[in-house]
Specification:
71% helix, mainly alpha, 6 helices, single chain
Length: 134
């Protein structure tokens, strides 16, 4: 449960940092952030991997035993749950790709700058608690 509190919070913080820079929720203005501020997309990618319950993350430690136990009780329900995990992972990677890569728009390039120390200090508990395996 700790992981499900930390990982979405880290993802919301990533979106908050981008929103703070651009003052818009349109994804097309967020593109190319991987080349203009590489630290933030790295944090967002590690949080996305934790959101997908990749092995080595705290989310995996919670979901894997649940799915193994569900297969022992009812394989149809467990199969549907695994399908939900796969679709969620696919969507997570698709939206991450839309946010951090794309065509460079010179009009919006001046709005990109690195996250400040306050924002990084907010990310540290999320990365330590939610992304790394407990």
């Amino acid at each position: 449960m700790l992981s499900y509190g930390l990982v979405p919070s880290a993802l919301f913080q990533c979106v908050g940092v981008l929103y703070d820079r651009h003052k818009t929720q349109l994804v097309r203005y967020y593109r190319i952030s991987v080349s203009t501020m590489p630290n933030l997309p790295t944090i967002c990618f590690s949080s996305t991997l934790a959101n997908m319950s990749s092995p080595g993350t705290s989310s995996f430690l919670g979901e894997f035993p649940i799915l193994v136990g569900a297969f022992k009780i009812n394989s149809l329900v467990a199969t549907l749950a695994v399908l939900g995990v796969i679709l969620g992972a696919t969507y997570s990677l698709w939206i991450y790709n839309r946010v951090v890569s794309g065509n460079l728009k010179p009009d919006f390039l001046h709005k990109f700058f690195y996250p400040n120390g306050r924002e990084f200090s907010i990310f540290i508990p999320f990365i330590v608690g939610g992304v790394t395996a407990c």
